[in-house]
Amino acid sequence: MAGGKRTGTLRKQIDRDRAYPAGEAVKLVKSGATAKFAETVEVAINLNVDPRHADQMVRGIVNLPNGTGKSVRIAVFAKGAKADEARAAGADIVGAEDLAEKVQAGTIDFDRCIASPDMMGIVGRLGKVLGPRGLMPNPKIGTVTPNLTEAIKNAKGGQVEFRVEKAGIIHAGIGKSSFSEAQILENLKVLYEAVVRAKPSGAKGTFIKKLSMSTTMGPGIKIDPSTLAAA
């Protein structure tokens, strides 16, 4: 109850029309994390794009310097020696046709999907299942690769994949409320810079329309993007 009152008080203190400096926003976000568990710190970035057009799609991958604080389950499509490599690197699920059958049947108990290049004949048939969930392996973001060890290590170590949704918004988790303010701010800045670098050729005008941050149970707080660019 005390946590709920504290969050309610914070909501009243937040100026919904104000875009706060990044550092101040992080302080407010942390003070609003009143749950008994370590809440996820989530970022929403509204972009001036229409992802229905190929030249306005925004997608990428970034290694957060302080990790995400989340345990990531990884599925790898591989056979033979590559399958052995994936298991040795810490993959949670490894398979080929058998894994494809499970995915096709709707059993998707993993957060990231990686594939060795020779498996794409099998994985390609799963596009309608994995695609909408943002799990389809893609060589452009390093999830189709012969170097499975590196890909798995990156995914386990705090690598975040971002992709603009139909409404032109990117959602991403950048840490936990238990992180220090400095760690959250550093992760936020690295994600922001990665999204800016991923600006597509078809994007015109102001690319970042709005940036906000919240915790799982806390209120959303707008951030002034220019304070990140200058940080």
Count of separate DSSP helical elements:
9
What structural category do the secondary elements indicate? alpha/beta
Mean pLDDT: 90
Uncertain regions: pLDDT < 50 for 5+ in a row? none
Separation, N- and C-terminal Cα atoms: 37 Å
- The coarse silhouette is globular
* Helix residue percentage: 25-40%
The helix-strand sequence is HHEEEHEHEHHHEEHEEH
DSSP strand count:
9
Major sheet description:
4 strands, antiparallel
Order of neighbouring strands in the sheet with most strands: 7-1-8-9
Strand content: 15-25%
- Cα gyration radius (Å): 19 Å
Protein model, in words:
This protein has 231 residues and is α/β, with parallel strands linked by helices. It is built from nine helices and nine strands. Helix 3 runs parallel beside helix 7. It is globular. The relative contact order is 0.27. The model has no long low-confidence stretch (mean pLDDT 90).
In brief:
The chain is of the alpha/beta class and 231 residues long.
Tell me the layout of helices and strands.
Elements: H1 2-13, H2 22-31, E1 40-47, E2 59-63, E3 74-77, H3 80-89, E4 93-95, H4 97-104, E5 112-115, H5 120-123, H6 127-130, H7 148-156, E6 159-163, E7 169-176, H8 181-197, E8 208-215, E9 221-223, H9 226-229
Parallel strand pairs: 3-4, 3-5
Antiparallel strand pairs: 1-7, 1-8, 2-6, 8-9
Helix pairs in contact: 3-7
